[in-house]
Amino acid sequence: MNTNYSIRDEIRDFWSERADTFDESVGHEIFSEAERKGWRRLIRKHLGEGQGRAALDLACGTAVISHLMNDAGFKVTGLDWSDAMLAQARAKAKKRGTDIRFVSGDAENTMEPRDSYDAITNRHLVWTLVDPASAFKEWFAVLKPGGKVLIVDGNMGRETWVKSLQKFWTKMTGKPAASHMSPDMMARHQKIRSRVHFSHEMPAEAIVDLLSKAGFTDIVVDRKLADIHWAQARKMPFLRGLERMVQERFAICARKPG
């Protein structure tokens, strides 16, 4: 393999290969009005109504969160490092008739103008960051004074009783737990996870600490996401849905002073 092929390249290529089927998975695309309502509640709770304010959706993928932000009245830019994901995002935006702007870029070094966004959003991005401390400083610089970042993620490396039950079930029956990834893709996923900053657990407190060091203030950890997770769980196989309900998932909102 090319020795210049980095973990960041591996992350980009992994998600590029998943682009065509990304929206087929519960937890990626939205499959019920109840879940959509939960996301809209979360966005308004922490970011308010858009009113034409500029928002940057990092690692936007197929633009699920970008469209929620657009629906809330923000002027949205979706950024992703995967051209395959951006192709899906642009096609979706064209079909829905939205004016979301999409750009190719690295969430850890966006190349976007300093002090230019009122809000930054991302979902399930932070666990993939190789250098989250530098990334948070970059996001701080891109935000306008008074702007906010809204992170939606979770401590997926934490062992839960449901995960233990799934492992026991696999051991007893020889049948792996239901997954939206093939065994090969799952192995690649685990290989990537082992090499990023949060290679094991990622408690909210660790993210809060890095955000604070980057200069953010008024940091709030919101764990009241049951409406979103219940709506998702209802569309999943039983054990996967149960795991969704007991996982340590959270939203973190922080403000740039000014």
From TrEMBL:
Q: Does the keyword Methyltransferase apply?
A: yes
**What CDD domains does the annotation carry?**
AdoMet_MTases (cd02440)
Q: Is Transferase included in the keywords of this UniProt record?
A: yes
Residue intervals of the Methyltransferase type domain: 56-151
List keywords of the entry alphabetically.
Methyltransferase, Transferase, Ubiquinone
Q: Give GO terms for biological process.
A: methylation
The UniProt GO MF terms for this protein read:
S-adenosylmethionine-dependent methyltransferase activity
This one is known as Ubiquinone/menaquinone biosynthesis C-methylase UbiE
Q: Which organism is it from?
A: Rhizobium aethiopicum
